[in-house]
Amino acid sequence: MLTTTDMPPGRNLTATAVLVAALVLQVSVANRLPLPGAVTPDLVLLTVVALALTGGPLTGTVAGFCAGLAADIIPPADHTIGRYALVYCLIGYVCGLVSDEMTRSAVVPFVAVAAGALAGTLLYAGLGMMLGDPRSAWEIVRRVVPLQVVYDVLASPFVMWAVLRATRRFERDHARDRFDLPIARYRTLSSRM
Amino acid sequence: MRDTRRTRAVLGTLLITALVLITVDYRGGEGSPLRMLRAAGDAVFGPIERLSASVVRPIGNAFDAITDAPGERRRAERLERENQRLREQLRAQRIDAERAAQLQRLLGSAGLGGYKIVPAQVISAGQGLEDTVTIDVGSRSGVRPDMTVMTADGLVGRVVRVGPATATVLLATDAASSVGARLEDSREIGIVQGAGRRGVGGGGATPLRLQLLNAHAPLRVGQRLVTLGSQGQRPYVPGVPIGTVERVEHSIGSLTRVAYVRPFVNFSTLDVVGVVVAPPASDPRDAVLPPRPKPAQPSTPPPTPSPSGSASPSPSPSASASPNASRTPDDTED
């Protein structure tokens, strides 16, 4: 799936495994949590953001598209196929672009998650409005979006930590020939949490 | 530097692919060639979700037990009493040798209404704006698209897609769902539409919206709704309880009034549901509605005879005319 030259092959497998785990956890655990407002954190989006922030725009784009397509066809999904693929692909690309900014400030991941959650929900809903989906009516979207962003930001440290833990092994091999400062920096951050 | 020409090319390709997918799937509707992708998704992710649900369920149960300990004890007591009652019924039934009818009675409301159901458990729930769940029965258990899904409390939704071992259910609260409904007492017909239960504000308690077809029909808070039943009993069988009118909105200049309905089913904690695989032989009307919490006013229209009244373990729900209004309905001791 992820055929990139600048990354060790093991990482592609790990990224795929991480995405599948996020998808399954999303539908069978996260979506059934009885949280106030019945809105749940979007673990798939957070995983895409985490992969993009550590892997760059190409990883983010491809991972986003694959995760989105899987989210479009995983059983309880009942919307037009391709909507999440488009949204997550764009989010992965944009978050990949800021991956170099990770060294500048510790708040970048949180800002990226918040912006990604906001943009992702609005873009998804906007696509729904264009397709005439009754679920994307403005009254519904207006109620959901604020809670969605809050929950995504609250859940982001855990997802980031899990994704970094899962991809760490390959990063370490990778770091031997080209030391990746942003990742090292973020790793120290996440280990402190 | 990282944003190379190659990255842009990949991004462009994938975005166009996504747009093509959306277009093809949208234009194709139900007959879209991409439904094959969904079928593949059902076949691949269905078993994974079943597995994950079986791993997650004990953890969730432990969590629920901690957060809801007093409620659980009450529930345990109630279940114990109910168990006792059911066991007695079962013994009596064995003697009676009317096995089929009695097993149906064991299935509670399903037996009351005469529905044949396949029990199932919810294994996953939909993401984002949609109110859908996956259940762990599929075409192998005889489930087909457009079958009604209910719990002992009332209507849950309908089956929209079926995989080999899983099925996707569109909940009644989803904004894409609309159900024909009938008011319990006045028999007025209306449409119950989902309003989405997610988000801050009003959606939580009253995620259903009722519009009566007759604009002049009386519409009061506290009226109860059952399903009207669809043509050929699909997707909705008649007589399944939906909910109670919670709030009536009079909008000026609008032809119809809108009422907000509190469903009988708690949609955020759905677990065991039943898929109606065979509709009742005759419309059960109000027989499946739970007993009224308090005696009704004498002005209520006379109750309908319930077709399966003899099979009912609880007092007839709408038999609340004045002579026995003082009798307290107590179905645990019957």
- The succession of helices and strands of chain A, N to C, reads HHHHHHH
Average pLDDT over all residues of chain B: 75
Binned strand content of chain A: under 5%
> What is the terminal separation of chain B in angstroms?
78 Å
Helical content of chain A (DSSP H or I, runs of 4+): over 70%
Q: Using the 3D structure, state the CATH architecture of the domain at 115-286 in chain B.
A: Beta Barrel
CATH topology title of the domain at 115-286 in chain B: Thrombin, subunit H
The largest inter-chain interface, given as chain pair and residues per side, is: A-B, 67 and 67 residues
Description:
The complex is a heterodimer of chains A (193) and B (334). Chain A is mainly α. In chain A, 73% of the residues lie in helices and 0% in strands. Mean pLDDT of chain A is 81; it is low at 1-6 and 175-179. Chain B is an alpha+beta fold. Chain B contains 5 helices and 12 strands. Chain B has helices at 5-28, 35-67, 69-96, 99-106, 109-113, and strands spanning 116-125, 132-135, 148-150, 155-162, 167-171, 178-183, 189-194, 208-212, 224-227, 241-249, 258-263, 272-278. In chain B, the strands form 2 sheets. In chain B, strands 1-2-5-4-3-12 form a 6-stranded antiparallel beta barrel. In chain B, strands 6-7-8-11-10-9 form a 6-stranded antiparallel β-barrel. In chain B, strand 10 (241-249) and strand 11 (258-263) form a beta hairpin. Chains A and B meet through helix 1, helix 3, helix 4, helix 5 and helix 6 of A and helix 1, helix 2, strand 1, strand 2 and strand 5 of B.
Short account of what is shown:
The complex is a heterodimer of chains A (193) and B (334). Chain A is an all-alpha fold and 193 residues long.
